[in-house]
Amino acid sequence: MINSSSDNVKKLNSINRRMFITGSVKFFIMIGLVSRLFFLQVKENKKYLTLSDKNRIREWKLAPVRGEFHDYFGNVIAGNFEAYQLHIIPEQVEDFRYVIYRIKDLLELSDKEFKRIIKKKNEIKSWETLIVSDNLSWKKFSKINNHLYDLNGVKPVISISRNYPFGSNFTHVIGYVSQANEQDIENNEAIKKNFVPGLKIGKVGLEKSFEKQLIGSNDIERYEVNAYGRRISQLEFQKGEKGKSLRLTVDTKVQQLSNELLKDQAGSICVMDIYTGELIAMHSSPSFDPNLFVFGISQDDWQIIRNDPMKPLVNKTLQGNYSPGSTIKPIVALSALENGIINTNFAVNCRGHKHPLELYGQTYHCWKKQGHGFMNLRNAMKQSCDTYFYEIARKLGVDRLSETAKKFGLGKEVFGNLFSIEKKGLIPSTQWKKNVLGQSWVLGETVITGIGQGYIQTTPIQLCLMTAQIANGGYKIYPKIVMDDENKVSPIDKFTPLYKNSKNIKIVQDAMFASTNEVRGTSYRSRINNPKYQFAGKTGTAQVKKITERDRELDLKTFQIPYEERDHALYIAYGPYKNPRYAVSILVEHGGNGSTTAAPMAKKLFKTIIDRHQLRESINNKKYLDI
Amino acid sequence: MYQHNRLTTNNFNFFTKLANFDYVLMACILLLGLISLATMYSTDGGKILFHTKSHFTKLIVFTIMMLIFSFVNIKFWFSIGYFFYVIIIGLLIWTYLFGIKSSGSQRWIDLYFINLQPSELMKICIILCLAKYFHRMKLENVNSLYAILSSLIIILLPMGLVIVQPDLGTSLLISISGLAVLWFAGINHKYFIYTMIGFLISLPFIISFLKPYQKLRVLTFLNPDRDPLGAGYQIIQSKIAVGSGGIFGKGFLKGTQSYLEFLPEKHTDFIFTLFSEEFGFVGSVILLLIYAIIIYRIVAIGAQSRSYFAKLFCYSFAASIFVYITINMSMVLGLLPIVGSPLPIMSYGGSSMLATMIGFGIVMSAKVHSQQLIA
């Protein structure tokens, strides 16, 4: 007992000593744990709080609302409409198969569309939105709404989308929008910043040029998400800004008229205010419906547009390089007058096809078989006598001609870099030929340049600008199509005279008047006698191919020639003659003859333009009246 | 001997037993139970769902069981020491043979009403068994080769059975519990030091024997950012949760990390993370304090006990509990590699709670019968 008791004491001593050691160790470990907690939760709290927020908060951007285009009178020509869409979140649907077949019946989806939807469904996560249809008709949309009771999880959604109420009328001015592709995102900061899947951006035209102003900014939704990325709750909604709306100088009525005039023909019509440079209308025909592109064009529609022989995708007003034909004659005459080559009395005898102008073995014919006889400037312009212009061009030389032509806006982009597609045209000179073709200039080339054939090429918008600058008395203007374009600095040389002697401009104007309003004038039949509408113009017929002797002998009528070989019909004009305000250029591809095809269009145009002039003015005055 | 002066009889009646109860320990355990229930409620997303209900039921049943156990004489616990051990070894063998496989390991046996994890019970059983083994042993015999070897066999047998499940975490905890008893029984501290040194030297070899996923855990522990979405995910998210809790926490049911399912294993091993995120530094320290009080009370009960067995059991049990807590928290706070080790009472899991409650029951019994001598 004693033994065992002494052993007990030893054991107790041992265990108590060890307990003490253990207790101390425990104490320090506890301190360690607490200090670790302190380190994480107090000292590093900020860091982990940020990490935790990063974990749980995710941003969703919504497509911004695009700015609109208004015409001069405030009519919406590219607006936004509420597209009726159908969304499904697959995980919220109890019986997906049933619902999707039910929708197929209701929307009368084709098997192809249906398969596409199923494919799309399999690509997304079950809590992501499946867009079944992005643009439903109201009828189908309401049909779906009526059947919602047995379509659990189906969400009819109204979303904002681009709409062009005037269809194809403005396509070549404003262009169209479509889904942004990778290249668009890459090349444009504004798109990159605001990009959301399905974002529609301008592909051509002003929609593209003014992307930055139009695009607006995203609505931003902040959601709390769980570890799998599922949205749990909305934390914040940050309203984006709608893009800036742009007012154009275009008058919808005139634009629509241009569309009607060129219906079923390829060509271009431009109408310009000769003082402000505002474009009243700018149309290229044929056009196409930009609404087709908003939700992605179908393959069939695209093939129809692409394969149309009249090339609707080409903007003929800006991209079309055409020989100006006789419409260059006012500039040739002006250049000759300015350079003192001729005076108003200078005359040339046009002796018809039997006695053409001959230069180094080449013959140069006037269009009129019988010849015009002795022609002075006024008569030559009136009747568009080629022989007269061969002669003065020969005397003038191509370099002096090209100088004047360039001064009046030919040979360079009218809108600067506003439209990326705009072409420069070509005003040839001896230097140009040497540099580009490496050959010397031949006199014969000067001769045909005098009637707007050969190397010389202009776009319809350039001809319009040229006409406007002749009509306004020879002063420089800068065409514009967007009102209050903040990017554009007002140029200093606006309204600087382009002439040496203003009398020369008067002479050319008078000659153009004669061409339209006097007997034997090439566009006499299209004249308007009422001085309110009276206009002056110049016809043009640009050859597409060289006229051979055989052609000359056959002397075929326009309808007898194959379409591709028919001449382009051109007409430039300004009016009213007494107090001019508007310039017009018309081009009808393969229209045959300027005086029979293009000039009558000008007659209809001027009626409308001048009728609407009062209204156009009053809109500007109204600003002050409102105050 | 002397105790007869104070208590003349061994037949304690119910009220004296009730009076001997350790109410501080009892209160702490109940408080811990309440906290664990609240936390479980939060893991269920603020709803009373499966985990909360199940945890509540277990808490009630096992607390009652603990109370019953505490009225059982400490002598009884002494007497069943070996028997209990043999039963659990049997269960472990049964598990090895017929256990339920789940996520790559075979740890559970199906008892129809509950899936039991015998390895958890072994954590308490080994203490009981070794405490009994050393109870009568003279101090000079403790360091005899025979005693050391037989006690090592007692430890290594269940360890081996648990490792093959495979469950490295639990087997380590079992061995630590066992070693704690050896330490308190008075085995020469040199052996512990030598073992430690030997372990450190052989560590590289041990690592080479580890399974690939275990190696990954060690590597991940050394640098969690090497695979933030894979192996490092748990520890990174856990640290984010704890760290973002701040001083006062995000508020009850407002822990975004757990609520938004960024936390893995939030019911079980990572429960402290959720608690810490919602209640912050203050809450975590309070929880630690509760654990500290529990451990302190267990040690105090051991100190008051007259029997060597009770002392040995209490001290070792306290040390084990402490180790469980330390390992769990260190793991969650990024101080140790991830090893599966639940936080006593807090973590969801019946077997773990059963084992802990049995331990508490025996401790309470030791308190109630503190003057009981065991021959």
CATH hierarchy, class of the largest domain in chain A: Alpha Beta
* Average pLDDT score of chain A: 87
Instruction: Note poorly predicted spans of chain A.
Output: none
Taking the alpha carbons of the first and last residues of chain B, their distance comes to 12 Å
Number of domains of chain A: 2
Annotation field: number of helices of chain B? 17
Tell me the overall shape of chain B: globular
Instruction: Give the overall shape of chain A, derived from the CA principal axes.
Output: elongated
CATH-level-2 architecture of the largest domain in chain A: 3-Layer(aba) Sandwich
CATH superfamily of the largest domain in chain A: DD-peptidase/beta-lactamase superfamily
Average pLDDT number of chain B = 87
Which structural class fits the helix and strand makeup of chain B?
mainly alpha
Protein described:
The complex is a heterodimer of chains A (627) and B (375). With 627 residues, chain A is an alpha+beta fold. Chain A folds into two domains: 60-247, Penicillin-binding protein 2a (Domain 2) (Alpha-Beta Complex); 252-299 and 310-483 and 491-622, Beta-lactamase, CATH 3.40.710.10. In chain A, 41% of the residues lie in helices and 17% in strands. Chain A contains 25 helices and 19 strands. In chain A, strands 2, 3, 4, 5 and 10 form a five-stranded mixed β-sheet that branches. In chain A, strand 18 and strand 19 (582-588) form a beta hairpin. The N and C termini of chain A lie far apart (120 Å). Chain B has one domain (16-368). Chain B is built from 17 helices and three strands. Chain B has a three-stranded antiparallel β-sheet with strand order 1-2-3, covered by helices on one side. At the A-B interface, helix 1 and helix 2 of A face helix 10, helix 13, helix 14, helix 15 and helix 16 of B.
